[in-house]
Write a structure and sequence with these properties.
Radius of gyration: 14 Å
Distance between the termini: 12 Å
Number of helices: 1
Number of strands: 5
Order of helices and strands: EEEEEH
Strand order of the largest sheet: 1-2-3-4-5
Length: about 90
């Protein structure tokens, strides 16, 4: 099935300055050894080369709510990049 044919999944996020945005979820994944979940999403913005910008955040539970958090750790980034490389090979 073509990506165009699939129904797009969206979520609402609230930025740090309180602005709510609806973003398109590309996919989510979890590292089983750390039980840490991540989400890859887009606001369908394009960079200067016409490529769509994607964002990656980790999902954290805070006060019973799922929130998105930045990724600060270099090792964590390395693992995420490897997942993205593997996925891009499959397409």
């Amino acid at each position: 099935m073509d990506m165009e044919e699939q129904e797009k999944k969206t979520i609402s996020i609230i930025s740090e300055d309180g602005v709510e945005e609806v973003v398109e979820v590309i996919f989510a994944f979890e590292f089983k050894d750390t039980n840490q979940e991540y989400i890859v999403y887009t606001k369908n913005e394009k960079d200067e080369n016409g490529n769509i910008t994607i964002y990656i955040s980790k999902i954290v539970e805070e006060d019973g709510e799922s929130k998105l958090a930045g990724i600060e750790d270099d090792e964590e980034w390395s693992r995420i990049k490897e997942v993205l490389r593997e996925l891009s090979k499959e397409e």
